[in-house]
Amino acid sequence: MADTLYRTHPLENRRAALAGLSGGLTVLAEDPVAAVNLRIDPDGPGAAALGRTLGTALPVEPNTWTHTCEGQLIWLGPDEWLVTSSTAQPLEFEQELGWVVSAFDGAAIDVSAQRTSIRLRGPLARELLSLGCSLDLRPSAFPAGACAQTQVGHTGVLLLALGAEDFRLFVRQSFAAYLADWVLDAAEEFRDQRGEPT
C-alpha cells in the first residue's frame, strides 16, 4: 500500500499561538495561495494583454500593488511582478498566464511553494512591525497600496500595506517559523496594551 502525503502549513504548529494574541493585535497564518512571478515589458503590448487577463493594469509605480479579481498584483521591479490567486490551482495559473506573456517574450513562473503569508491587523500592527523593520511605516510614508521588499526581525519579507492597520507579510517558507516566533516575542512588548496581565 502506498503512503499518502498530505501538505502541512509551515506554521501549523504556531497557528494557535498567533491566533491567541488579542486586544490591539490580530495575527493570522494565512492559507496558501497560487503565486506566479511575471516578467514582461511594461511599455509593450504584452502588459496590456496581461492586464486584460487579470482584470487590472500592471502597477508600474515602484513599491505599489493592486487587487485582481482573485488576489493581488505586486510590483517587484521595473519589469517584474508577483501575482497571487486565492482560487486558481498553481500550475494552471502559471500555464494561463504563460500563454499570455510568452507571445510577447515574457515569462511566467509558478512560485506558489516559495512563500507563505502572515496577516497582521489592529491598532498595534504598525507599531509591532516598526520594532523589527527599518522602513518608515507611518501612514504618510507607507499607506494602503504600498509594498516593499524589506526585512522584519532580520527576515526577508515582501510587506504589503492592505489598510491603515492591516498588513500582509510574504515570507519564504523556510523562514516562516522564525518570523512567527519573532512576532510572538515582539508582541510581548504590548501585553499590557492588549489588556492582558503583565
UniProtKB/TrEMBL annotation:
InterPro entries: SoxG, TrmE/GcvT-like. Keywords: Oxidoreductase. GO terms for molecular function: sarcosine oxidase activity. Its EC number is 1.5.3.1. It comes from the Bacteria. The keyword Ubl conjugation does not apply. This is Sarcosine oxidase subunit gamma. It comes from Amycolatopsis magusensis.
